What does this fold into?
Amino acid sequence: MNDNFPFVFLEIILALGIVSLNVLVCATVYLHKELRSITNFLIVSLAAADIGVGAVAIPFSIVLSMEYILCFYTCIFITCFPLVTTQFSILLLLLIAINAHLKIRLPNSYMVYVTNRRLAFAVLLCLFLSCLIGFSPMMGWNQFQQYVGSNRTHAASERSMAGFERSILLYYLPRRSRDLSRAYFSHRQVINNSSIQGDHLGCCSLTSVFTPEYLVYFVFLGCTLLPLLIMLSIYADIFRVVRGHLRSSKKWEINMAWTMLLLVGIFCLCWIPLNAINSLRLLCQSCFIPVPLLRMAVLFSHMNSFANPLVYAMRKRNFGAALKSVFLRLIRCCPVPTVLRRNHKIHPETG
It folds into this structure.
């Protein structure tokens, strides 16, 4: 526990910050009608995914760091849920990029193709695909045999210790007590065997249920790197179009594209360390990875959910002013600042 204390403490602080900031983002869009746009709806969906990281994924990460003895199916659910929130964030970033691309490429017919109903369906589809990808290890792509095998080794060591303990006690106890002791140790061995074989108990950690091939080939290369490359190509085309029509391009369009590209860049930076470690585990299975390094990579990946609201506040001026106004109303019970009231030319996408 002493070794885990810095990691657990930082995770708790990070979780509180993530939940607070992203709830503030959702409340800001809800309270300010001028911010209720399609782009901001996607940002609220991304904030909801980040709330899931702070409220559920980080507590599960803390449980995994403790390496508790858990049932295999409980352990695999705990380890799969963070993958769901991560994949949901990736797909939402891809959806935001597609939305921005349609807005730049089809400015006149954009509202015809992109409706609220279609957008809600797209977000629900992203959530469904995220659950399908994240919970795929529960369908069989896991290390069940290794998990059970390691527990049998653990059970064998317990039985050897129990045998040593029994031999010592039986040597010193009287005959009547020896009979009772034999019955007790036999009963305890039956209970231990049934609990290990029936419940599949074992030491639960991130590396105990996932195969390196699943984390690298499927999660990283297939479900993370591929969408990110698609996003980069979309934003490259957006900037090419904007540069070609620089005079007719609106300032808010350029600012929006840069903001969303910054979100993608921060996501890449935050998740590179953990994916690099998973790739190293696959390519060099004999290499030793220090536990503190792995925990720092996990912390860095969670910081992505903390950074997203800060990007909204710094890159989107009116959104930042609205965030500040809601924060003051919650903390000091102050009236809404007049920053938004005085600005009559607020475009809903700049907020």
Observations:
- Confidence is low (pLDDT under 50) at residues 152-172, 190-197, 338-346.
- The first helix runs from residue 5 to 31.
- The chain has two domains: 5-142+210-342, 148-201.
- The beta strands are 69-71, 201-203.
